[in-house]
Write a structure and sequence with these properties.
single chain, alpha+beta, globular, binds adenosine-5'-triphosphate, binds magnesium ion
Length: 373
Amino acid sequence: MNIKEREKYIEEFDFPHCDDATKYEKVAKIGQGTFGEVFKAKERKNPKKFVAMKKVLMDNEKEGFPITALREIRILQLLKHENVVNLIEISNAVNRYRSTFYLVFDFCEHDLAGLLSNVNVKFNLGEIKKVMQQLLNGLYYIHSNKILHRDMKAANVLITKNGILKLADFGLARAFSISKNGTANRYTNRVVTLWYRPPELLLGDRNYGPPVDLWGAGCIMAEMWTRSPIMQGNTEQQQLTLISQLCGSITTDVWPGVENLDLFSRMELPRNQKRKVRERLKPYVKDPYACDLLDKLLILDPSKRIDSDSALNHDFFWTDPMPGDLSKMLAQHTQSMFEYTAPPRRAGHMRPHHHQAIQKPSHMDSGYQDRVF
Ligand SMILES: Nc1ncnc2c1ncn2[C@@H]1O[C@H](COP(=O)(O)OP(=O)(O)OP(=O)(O)O)[C@@H](O)[C@H]1O
Ligand SMILES: [Mg+2]
């Protein structure tokens, strides 16, 4: 097919299950991920309806629709829950002989990274409980459906102006099964953003499961008080060192079987480190129930790490102040807050392609204080 023929073919092709992207009008760019751009847009027919459009990156046109995007779509179509981002449809924009696809989601006003980087956003204890309860509810649901998220981090947690939390970004998610009759799974361990990556992945485990997401939940929970990621390693080795310094030395005593992981003898594991999770988080966290739950989420041995069901039954969620509605607090902030539109959360840590799409409110430039835990 020559270019002209191809142009005609694509223009006339009726993509099944795809609606025309021109029914939406872009309003602002709100995200730049590894896998493409995300826009806020409104529906032309119903200008009160806002959506988020995530562009599907066509890395290798010859191979057709990218398999990674197909996987994300399949998983999103399966997951329907109040605490999981809702995929409305796939839309298609034809522009000459190029076809661009978008994943269209219900719009959420904020992401947690954006909220935490704004010093004017203050969560009280009941509100923090509500965030964590919804996050664990979402994890409970996806894990019950045999899906691993594999990219837990504050930027992938969305919050609507009504205070409803939605797990987002299923770009790295996959289905899992419990390995049966002795045949171990062989999943890739090159997943999860380094700062939120659990020790089993850093040590080369390929037969992991839901506990990888609960480690991330623990990192995010601590961040609700510290306001910046608690372990910011630059390399996998450094990340393991930071983990050992907080959670204690990685040994066969605390984690029987760890010696069988591929990288156990290849990485440098600090010795004689005491576990200091409670001690180091207490000055920020204060609440003893919160410290106890954090201590159980940040457990080195994944088989001993608390699961979402037990975490939801933890006293933290069932003692005063009880989890409380977030909408009142959020109503004080009329501007959307996203990681992309916030200033970098760490000195010297620049995100690539950081074009300013939405005007930053002035308080963010002056009032933001970088606090590395
Ligand atoms: N439904 C939505 N409503 C509002 N904002 C959204 C929505 N979906 C995504 N975003 C914003 O866009 C950002 C990037 O989206 P997402 O995480 O899905 O893409 P990604 O390309 O996989 O990102 P990365 O690779 O950086 O994790 C999110 O962090 C969030 O700020
Ligand atoms: Mg993301």
